[in-house]
Amino acid sequence: MSDKTKPGSAQATVLIDNERTRVTEWRFPKRGDNTGWHRHRWDYVVVPLFDGVLEIDNGGGEIAKAGMSNGVPYFRKAGVEHDVINGNDFECAFIEVEFLDRE
């Protein structure tokens, strides 16, 4: 079952943050590290920096496994709610690029 109160243990480093774009590196040092439950306010692109699997807790007890390929980006629309979890036996990371609408 989803625990929407579970704090995130992944390390977020904001690399760029301006009026149009926020770029964040998410680093997951060990299996089970997670972002914590969150909702995306803006459209975004994720660029994995590894080959492996992320586990996505979408709520309601559903955990999806998402295969990642190093350097192969994917796009998501605003409104996604989830907790992203390292499903690997090694450190992994990705770059998240959010397209901000701050006007």
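Second entry:
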Amino acid sequence: MTMRIGLIGEAMIELAGTPLERRWGGDTLNTAVYLARQLGAAHPVHYLSALGDDSLSDGLLADWQAEGIATERIARLSGRLPGLYLVETDDAGERRFHYWRSDSAARHWFAGGLDFAALFDGLDAVYLSGITLALFPAPERKRLIEALAAFRRQDGRVWFDNNYRPQLWPVADARDAYAQLYAIADIALVTEDDETRVFGDDGDALIARVQALGCSEIVVKRGAAPATVISGGLQVAVAASPVERVVDTCAAGDSFAAAYLAARLLGATPADATRSGHRLAGLVIQYPGAIMPTGAMPR
């Protein structure tokens, strides 16, 4: 059965490297790219966002289309520009971000009273992140969550990654929004460090809380440490293979999410899907930037 997947969020121009190179990225877009590479035309991947009407936005749209992403649900706002971020990477591959996004096309679009029923029409699954939630003004975030709940009641699937950026919103707002998403989501991809920053718990307490809120399939990501996957009454720890040389950890979690979800769609067990997530993330962090070369993708 064909699954039509929509990923909602903001993608931006990326500056990184020495000398600086211009690329692009954004957490949900990174996941969209890696999903599209794995699923191909069998399961169309749509990106739900906004760009400007400028030449930079034209270039971004062309690049994403070349990656196999369906872009007809990307709005084009007159006089607006895409956001921008700069990445600094240390010797261990850990990164630090600097953002120029407050006036981006996507931020204006998120604040503009979207028709979510029309945006989600014809989709079978919607993926979003904690960053997506943070970029919506509070009243529009409330409408988004209500729309996702309605989508879920109509047999749509909701996939949520808790990706958290404290500079974007107060922790109390994140805590409230995340709890509502865990009550809606079919699958929750939870980075433990981020979740601890929001809720203060970890380990079994974290898992029990998310389960109690209603989510039945949970993957707790812990970087290079084993991930824990919980589904169908089973809880399994799945180790990652060591990576000798980490170049850039950007998009590690985003690519993990893409590989996990793609594997699950293609019939893998949760444990095997977690192994797929580890494998792709382990490759991605050996390349600079969020998007590694297509030829490096695992078969």
